[in-house]
Write a structure and sequence with these properties.
The chain is an alpha+beta fold. It is 25% helix and 19% strand. It contains four helices and four strands, in the order αβαββααβ.
Length: 182
């Protein structure tokens, strides 16, 4: 014969609500402070300014120039896309690709001497505005914390290199070159 089961009345008084543990991992551990990022990127931005001055206006359609932002490997996720900084500088996205870099400083257990995948973003904006911004980077101090966070995600900034240039081949028998530039 089965043992009797007792029904306890008011059993809800014997239990307590337990708070659900948070799912977040806490605050993002950034490799650089804003000041460190600004000090690190001042010279690259000055090179961008110098290179922009040397570019022919013919190479800047509608006065626009392209930039290459390499983000730190810690910001590989798409949620770390630097939209606030892009809006601040008037930049638009042209494309991206993956590169492998050895960052100057890492977060956590990742050694800095091992190459890690990082996003390389190709962005475009007004060349004159970019020259003016490049000149004021050492004194630049945005009030918006999101812009500051976006800026410290950058590991390197430069103009796209010669590896991004495409040659144009003439077609036998034709005087014009069929070309579409977007």
């Amino acid at each position: 014969m089965a043992s009797p089961r007792y029904l306890i009345g008011g059993g809800e008084k014997l239990s307590d609500n337990i708070e659900r543990p948070s799912r977040g991992m806490g605050d993002k551990a950034h490799p650089y402070t804003f000041g460190e990022a600004k000090a690190k990127l001042t010279k690259p931005w000055q090179r961008v300014e110098d290179n922009l001055r040397q570019i022919s206006p013919l190479a800047c359609p509608n006065g626009d120039a392209a930039l290459a932002f390499t983000l730190h490997p810690s910001y590989l996720a798409k949620s770390y896309y630097p939209t606030p900084l892009m809006k601040e500088l008037g930049l638009r996205h042209l494309g991206s690709r993956a590169v492998f870099i050895s960052p100057e400083k890492t977060v956590g257990a990742n050694p800095s001497d091992i190459e890690q995948p990082a996003p390389l973003l190709y962005l475009a904006g007004n060349a004159e505005s970019l020259r003016r911004f490049s000149a004021r980077v050492p004194d630049w101090n945005p009030s918006d914390e999101k812009v500051r966070d976006s800026f410290r995600q950058i590991e390197m900034v430069a103009l796209p290199g010669p590896d991004r240039l495409k040659s144009i081949h003439k077609i036998k028998g034709r005087t014009d070159i069929p070309l579409a530039v977007c």
